[in-house]
Design brief:
Among the domains are: about 25-160, Roll (Diaminopimelate Epimerase, Chain A, domain 1), CATH 3.10.310.50; about 205-305, no CATH class; about 440-585, no CATH class. Helix content is about 65%, strand content about 5%. The protein contains 20 helices and 7 strands. The strands form 2 sheets. Strands 2-3-5-6-7 form a 5-stranded mixed sheet, sandwiched between helices. The chain has a two-stranded parallel ribbon with strand order 1-4. Strand 5 and strand 6 form a beta hairpin. Helix 11 runs antiparallel to helix 12 (about 355-380), helix 12 (about 355-380) packs across helix 19 (about 605-615) and helix 13 (about 385-435) runs antiparallel to helix 16. The radius of gyration is 29 Å and the shape is globular. Residues about 1-25, about 160-200, about 600-605, about 620-645 and about 650-655 have low confidence and may be disordered. It holds the Pfam family TPM_phosphatase.
Length: about 675
């Protein structure tokens, strides 16, 4: 079916736009072999490939750096050169000392993928890319690789040779500082307090370290806010609103600071190039905001802890949570049956956000039972404090189980709504194509657009009637076809009718955006122990875009539509990033922020691992203090492949991130 969609859309574009020649062969990110060279474009003969392989092996012998060179015709999935090369590095488990030079020989694009913690700096890599561009432009592939190797050798040799110079400079600076301190002390004695100066400026943190600190602070603070928000709900239910007024104010302030921090992180991650100065300023601001948010929550921690003295009401609370757990268990059976029904109707792609919700909910409920049993034992032994910890952990586990169950029903409703919307849009497109056929068409563009839209509409009608199906994907493709047709005849159609179509399209897109954001929110919240800052940032920005779309509905519908579409895309990115993080967590690997995963078995293993995945950390609660508020899961060593020239090695916890801006066309 996807192939039919692709063929239809390609045909439509060909009929509407100018004709083009056959495209070059596109290539997905490749698997590196036993050597340093992958030549899928076949631009090197046997002798050239052997010479390049030897040159790259020499680079490793002299510097310890692995440089893998990949020649393909075109980059695809993703088509962006940086993302494509970085995906090759990720798929092949490359470490901090391992680089990929990726060249699209027909697409005429190139990029060097590098870990930010590697021995060659971003500026040095940019300089190397500039040096090899003329060789690539002339088709001198061997010369390009040789020049790249020279650049790597020069960068690492210069760094080693500068070591003694650096030591001498440090000694000289130290002597100057000592002299300055002596002079300053003497002046201070002579002039008293009026002659005092401010504290010396602290050494500047390297930018890569600052970025890692900011990402980590975002994760910690997001967990702190989410956990505090849940705890506030529990406290309100038990003690009332009046007793939690101060904590509500602190929480709202922390949420506002966190939202500003996520906005800055999104600005750092978008497609617009940022200067090092901007990156440093924004990351420092993220740290400041996170520190302020945590300080506000910690300031109220003592009052909140006193409010949550469950030991005074532990027997009643234990009975209440047991009853809630039994209700959730009964509902879980219905949820499991519901998932079975949904899988017979819809494709896996339509259910990916809730695919493992039944297993995850069962883990939470098993964990809750374990905690309640331990709490009862503690009560029988007269230890009310220990009982309160178990009851609190069970409360959160049951709450997450209920959220997971609710998410299945919400997804079912969203899919049903998408089916109805797709059917309505098919009918609307049929009316529009009929009406468009009567419009003036001096150059035949309208006729071509009408024919292409009818082809897309028929394919959509077939897909809506198929079993299994993905109505969300079908609706998205229909929306794209509708927008293309509207864009073509926008200057011809009546302004009032166009506004009506825009309003209807906005309503559909905004509803879909809300559904995507809600699905991603539920997924991340119940698996936050494994989810890093990237997914959380996309989710925060998706929610903000959806809010902006709602605010602009009346005043600027077109801008509102753009924001709603952006919210959809960001929510999908958030969900995909979170699913990759959870997958890495289950495998004991690294998430998108370079943090250790939690170990194998997360999809259906032990209840404890499920609790950790959900961000429920009992040991921290039992140990006392406020650290549980910011705990997001456990860390365990992941696995990395080792070796050089095809058997690759990473480093335990020592890597940075990929995604350097560079490369380009040649």
């Amino acid at each position: 079916m996807r192939a039919r969609w692709a063929a239809a859309l390609t045909a439509a574009l060909t009929m509407i736009l100018v004709g083009v020649g056959p495209a070059a062969s596109a290539t997905d990110p490749v698997e590196l072999g036993a050597g340093y060279v992958v030549d899928e474009s076949d631009v090197l003969d046997q002798a050239q490939e052997s010479a390049v392989q030897d040159r790259l092996a020499e680079l490793y012998d002299q510097t310890g750096i692995d440089l893998y060179t990949v020649f393909v015709s075109e980059f695809t999935n993703p088509a962006d050169s940086q993302q494509w090369a970085d995906e090759v590095a990720r798929l092949n488990g490359l470490g901090v000392d391992q680089y990929v030079l990726a060249v699209a020989t027909d697409g005429r694009e190139y990029y060097i993928s590098a870990d930010s913690a590697g021995p060659v700096s971003a500026d040095e890599l940019t300089a190397i890319e500039g040096e090899i561009r003329p060789f690539l432009r002339d088709g001198d592939w061997v010369g390009a690789v040789s020049t790249t190797v020279d650049g790597f050798e020069s960068a690492t040799t210069a760094g080693a040779g500068a070591g003694w110079i650096f030591v001498l400079v440090v000694v000289a600076i130290g002597a100057i500082v000592v002299i300055w301190l002596v002079v300053r002390r003497r002046r201070s004695r002579g002039s008293g307090a009026s002659g005092a100066t401010g504290p010396p400026v602290a050494a500047q943190v390297p930018l890569a370290d600052l970025e890692r600190q900011a990402s980590s602070a975002l994760v910690d603070t997001d967990d702190a806010v989410r956990t505090s928000e849940q705890e506030l709900g529990f406290a309100r239910a038990q003690f009332g609103d009046d007793a939690t007024v101060d904590f509500v104010a602190a929480l709202e302030s922390a949420k506002a600071q966190l939202a500003e921090a996520f906005t800055l992180k999104q600005r750092l991650d978008d497609e617009i190039a940022d200067t090092d100065a901007d990156r440093r300023e924004w990351n420092e601001r993220i740290l400041q905001l996170c520190q302020a948010a945590n300080a506000e929550l910690d300031e109220k921690a003592a009052d909140f802890d006193a409010l949550r003295e469950l030991e005074r009401t532990a027997p009643d609370a234990l009975a209440r949570v047991r009853a809630e757990r039994e209700t959730a268990i009964t509902r879980l059976r219905d949820t499991e049956e519901r998932m079975t029904q949904l899988r017979t109707t819809y494709r896996d792609t339509a259910l990916s956000a809730v695919a493992d919700n039944v297993d995850q909910a069962r883990q939470r409920l098993g964990f809750a039972e374990q905690q309640l049993t331990e709490a009862q034992t503690a009560l029988d032994a007269g230890d009310g404090g220990e009982a309160a910890v178990g009851i609190r952990a069970a409360e959160e586990a049951v709450d997450q189980a209920q959220t997971l169950e609710n998410a299945v029903e919400k997804q079912a409703a969203d899919l049903s709504d998408a089916e109805a919307a797709a059917s309505a849009l098919i009918a609307e497109l049929e009316r529009e194509t009929a009406a468009s056929g009567a419009l003036p068409d001096p150059d035949g563009q309208v006729a071509a657009a009408v024919a292409a839209t009818r082809q897309v509409t028929q394919l959509a009608r077939d897909e809506v009637a198929a079993t299994p199906r993905d109505p969300l994907a079908t609706l998205q493709r229909l929306q794209a076809a509708d927008q293309q047709l509207d864009a073509l005849v926008a200057g011809i159609r009546d302004a009032q009718a166009e506004q009506q179509r825009l309003t209807e399209g906005l309503a559909r897109t905004l509803a879909a955006a809300r559904a995507r954001v809600a699905a991603a929110e539920d997924y991340i919240m119940t698996r936050r122990g494994a989810v890093g800052a990237n997914a959380r940032t996309r989710l925060a920005e998706a929610g903000a875009a959806a809010v902006r779309a709602e605010q602009l509905q009346t005043s600027d519908p077109r801008a509102a539509l753009a924001e709603a579409q952006r919210a959809q895309a960001l929510a999908d990115e958030a969900l995909a990033s979170a699913q990759r993080d959870v997958g890495a967590f289950d495998r004991g690997g690294y998430n998108s922020d370079g943090m250790f995963g939690g170990g194998p078995g997360g999809g259906g293993g032990s209840d404890i691992l499920g609790a950790i995945l959900g961000g429920i950390v009992v040991n921290s609660l039992r140990s006392g203090g406020g650290s549980s508020r910011r705990s997001g899961g456990s860390a365990s060593f992941g696995s990395r492949r080792s070796g050089g020239g095809g058997f690759r090695t990473g480093s335990f916890g020592g890597g940075g991130t990929r995604g350097r801006r560079g490369g380009g066309r040649f």
